[in-house]
Structures are given as C-alpha cells and as structure tokens.
C-alpha cells in the first residue's frame, strides 16, 4: 500500500502516477506512468483511494455499483407519479388590455 490509512483522507507515502487511460495508479518509474497523481504527504480523498485500489478494502466496480443501486431501486415502494401542470399557450392573445402605457 502506498498510502497511510488513517480512517479519513489517506496520505501518500510516495509519488504515484495515473496511467494514460486513468484506470490505474502506478508507482514512479512504471512504464505505464503518464500523469502525476500525488506526491509524498499529499492527502487523497478516501473515495479516490478506494477507486484506484490504494486501500485494503475491496475495490468497487462501477458495474457492480450500478447493479446494487438497481436492486435497491426495485425494493423501494413505487412513488406516485407527479402531476404535470398544463403549459401556457403563448400563441393565444390576452382577452383584454392590461392597462399598460399604450392605452
């Protein structure tokens, strides 16, 4: 692990780089290193550290996360559909003069 896990944001203990496709974080000197991600002592938000596998926690895949959200949505009670307010007809002219300056 290249970070110190303190329970909140994690702190990098070395330089880490993103790969060109930004799907992985690799150490300095790796041939896939493309853009600097962090330097030693830099605080990394916990969600980013988990996304790139920098924590000991299991990595959450976007597909698995979407499937979990869909499952939760299926278990929720159906909400009443909202009533749509009728649109005003802008082509219709007002019935009477509104007493403007041109009267």
What would your notes on this structure say?
This protein has 103 residues and is of the alpha+beta class. Helix content is 19%, strand content 19%. The chain has helices at residues 46-51, 62-75, and strands spanning 3-4, 10-12, 16-19, 25-27, 33-38, 43-44. The chain has a 3-stranded antiparallel β-sheet with strand order 1-2-6. It has a 3-stranded antiparallel β-sheet with strand order 4-3-5, with no helix packed on it. The protein starts with a strand and ends in a 28-residue tail after the last helix. The mean pLDDT is 77.
Keywords, separated by commas or semicolons:
single chain, 103 residues, alpha+beta, 19% helix
User: What's the number of extended β-strand segments?
Assistant: 6
Order of helices and strands: EEEEEEHH
Strand content: 15-25%
Mean pLDDT: 77
The class by helix and strand makeup works out as: alpha+beta
The DSSP helix count reads: 2
